[in-house]
Design brief:
α8 packs parallel to α10 and α14 runs parallel beside α15. By secondary structure, this protein is α/β, with parallel strands linked by helices.
Length: about 650
């Protein structure tokens, strides 16, 4: 009788087979709670995987939270339980009432729930995700492979980007009216949202989750979040979601010991425990867990139109000894330290995502020197298309934090990253992790006086923009947040009342716009043809010079960066081609908070070989600055620098009014 009732429902034997095989990549379409019409009646079908349970029921707001009577039926030769309940509907609160093999009973939130109560409450909410009228078809049609396109990502935490006057959160829908025009005015191409899957503890920032399919209710409903994504897409801004398949929280209502046994986590505590974080690793050896996680990645792209995922803590997944003492980990069957099951999972994940969404972004936060993170899985790689360049980030910030007098001894921190810059498809991150826990804000990492700190920040952001690889910067850096991210309060927007911060904002907007306009800064990001040193060895003066190239010779930019607080009225640099060059950006411009040491007139090369180049030119090189030059074309009417500065100044006033 039980099996008969299940078979009459919406679940097919093929779906069940694929789920247990690890290849049900849209399992959210039938697992969980789904409003449905069956046998002529409206109601909700509940389906859950709990193979070691003796009995599973549904406890909810309609039965006094006692699921002992509203029991589910176990499918034959399966660990899946399911049943249709007429009369229930979207909005009902529920949990699964599970009785384990020892007779103990407890309540669990639905792993596949699409919505949850607002914390600290923990019930799942029956939710119908259909019915939102999307208006981003034009955006989705024009998506192409990202490699030869600009990508400048604004990373933000939804709860602390902005808050209401009383300290409460904006909803996703309310946030759209503030965030969309701001990101557009600041000339970013994408936003990356820190994790939004349901999580119990605010200060985990979303990285310790309990409901991977439920967009957090802190900021509103699923349709509210769809509205935010939709609005961003309508103005041409891509949306990346920080995604966490590495571990989950141990909270009692979550996945831990879901049916009384280690189900989603490894049974072996040496593999399950992440002692540094107090969380549990997913068991990637279980096909059902693979179906659950891969389906979740597809879910965010299908249901919420997410353009890509930044996959958190990949190193912790693929290394059995990650942040563990020797007695806290075991080796694999071959005696190695690789988690071969996690490697296989990531390969399956990426292959599947690109099968359904060929132009998606799959970006790995991988902090080791693991080879082939962005190599195709069929070649033995992990199959991502981007990797965060943690080496570049660490070396760059280590150098930038040095006192000026010590920098010449660490000049290699600027040059060594180029030795591996093309070993993977890299994104250069200046993320939230670098501005918390006493690390100080990017502005306050800079040595020197108040003015030198701002000059250093302008230099740092310009250096990032002109290096090979896509870009990511955490919120607040664009206007010089002085205090590190407080992770409970909104950014210090009041700083825009001060001239230095307003000018920093104008600089960032102009820099970002220049980045999009100049093809040399992104067109050949992943090829040596896009970069060439002119002078990498001037450690004493702290000056580096290089070219960024596009596919056309006329797109080449000459980048000169002075990392020392010394000005040079006549600094000679080698040039690759004779002709007339114009300054397209100078971070020392008055509009950006600098002293105004510019090169306002066209610069004519001299037939004097320099830096192994056939000709050279003398420029004014300000202290702690980045200067970009471009060969003047006959059609070039005016300095791009002055145009960008005027536009940025106008943008600043618009942004302050948001």
């Amino acid at each position: 009788m039980n099996a008969q009732e299940v078979r009459e429902g919406s679940i097919t034997p093929e779906q069940v087979y694929l789920f247990h095989e690890g290849t049900s990549f849209h399992s959210y379409r039938w697992m969980g709670a789904h409003p449905a019409r069956e046998n002529g009646e409206e109601g909700v079908r509940f389906t859950v995987w709990a193979p070691c349970a003796r009995q599973v029921g549904v406890a909810g707001d309609w039965n006094g939270w006692d699921g002992s009577q509203d029991t589910l039926y176990r499918m034959p030769q399966s660990g899946i339980w399911s049943r249709f309940f007429p009369g229930l509907q979207a909005g009902n609160l529920y949990k699964y009432h599970i009785t384990d093999q020892h007779g103990a009973s407890f309540l669990k939130a639905d792993p596949y729930a699409f919505h949850a109560e607002v914390r600290p409450n923990t019930a799942s909410v029956v939710t119908d995700l259909s019915g939102y009228n999307w208006n981003d078809a034009a955006w989705r049609r024009k998506r192409r492979a990202p490699y030869a396109k600009p990508m400048n990502i604004y990373e933000l935490h939804v709860g602390t980007w902005r808050q209401k006057a009383d300290g409460s959160f904006y909803t996703y829908r309310e946030l759209a009216d503030l965030l969309v025009p701001y990101v557009l005015e600041m000339n970013y191409t994408h936003v990356e949202l820190m994790p939004l899957a349901e999580h119990p503890y605010d200060l985990s920032w979303g990285y310790q989750e309990t409901g991977l399919y439920a967009v957090t209710s802190r900021y509103g409903s699923p349709h509210d979040f769809m509205y935010l994504v939709d609005r961003l897409h309508q103005v041409g801004i891509g949306v990346i979601l920080d995604w966490v398949p590495a571990h989950f929280a141990k909270d009692a209502h979550g996945l831990r010991l879901f049916d009384g046994s280690p189900l989603y986590e490894y049974a072996d505590p040496l593999k399950a425990e992440k002692p540094g974080w107090g969380t549990l690793s997913f068991d990637y050896s279980k096909p059902e867990v693979v179906s659950f996680l891969v389906s979740n990645a597809i879910f965010w792209m299908e249901m919420y139109h997410i353009d890509g995922l930044r996959v958190d803590a990949v190193t912790s997944m693929i290394r059995l000894d990650f942040e563990k003492r020797e007695e806290q980990y075991s080796r694999n069957a071959q005696g190695g330290l690789d988690n071969t099951e996690a490697v296989a999972f990531l390969q399956t994940l990426n292959k599947t995502v690109f099968h359904y969404y060929p132009n998606a972004l799959m970006m790995a936060e991988e902090s080791s020197a693991w080879p082939g993170v962005t190599a195709p899985s069929h070649e033995g790689g992990l199959g991502f298309n981007y990797k965060w360049n943690m080496g570049w980030m660490n070396d760059t910030l280590k150098y930038m934090e040095l006192d000026f007098g010590a920098r010449h001894e660490k000049h290699h921190l600027l040059t060594f990253p180029m030795c591996y810059a093309y070993s993977e498809n890299f994104a250069l991150p200046l993320s939230h992790d670098e501005v918390v826990h006493g690390k100080r804000s990017l502005l306050n990492k800079m040595p020197g006086t108040y003015e030198q700190k701002f000059a250093g920040l302008r230099l740092l952001l310009g250096y990032q923009i002109t290096q090979p690889g896509k870009k990511l910067t955490f919120m607040g850096a664009e206007f010089g947040q002085f205090i590190e991210w407080k992770d409970q309060d909104q950014l210090d927007w009041f700083l825009l009342d001060y001239d230095s911060h307003r000018r920093q904002l104008a600089y960032t907007a102009a820099l970002n716009k220049l980045y999009q306009q100049e093809r040399a800064l992104w067109e050949l990001d992943h090829s040596w043809e896009g970069f060439q040193w002119i002078n990498a060895d001037n450690a004493e003066q702290g000056v580096i010079i290089y070219m960024r190239k596009g596919k056309r010779a006329g797109d080449t930019l000459i980048v000169v960066i002075n990392f020392q607080p010394h000005a040079y009225e006549r600094y000679r640099i080698g040039m690759p081609r004779t002709g007339e060059y114009v300054e397209v950006l100078n971070s020392d411009h008055h509009d950006y908070g600098g002293e105004g040491m510019l090169n306002p007139k066209p610069l004519h090369t001299e037939k004097l070989s320099w830096h192994d180049q056939p000709c050279s030119v003398e420029i004014a090189l300000p202290p702690l600055s980045i200067v970009m030059l471009k060969k003047k074309s006959p059609q070039r009417r005016s300095s791009a620098k002055r145009s960008a500065a005027r536009q940025a100044s106008s943008q600043t006033e618009k942004i302050k009014r948001l």
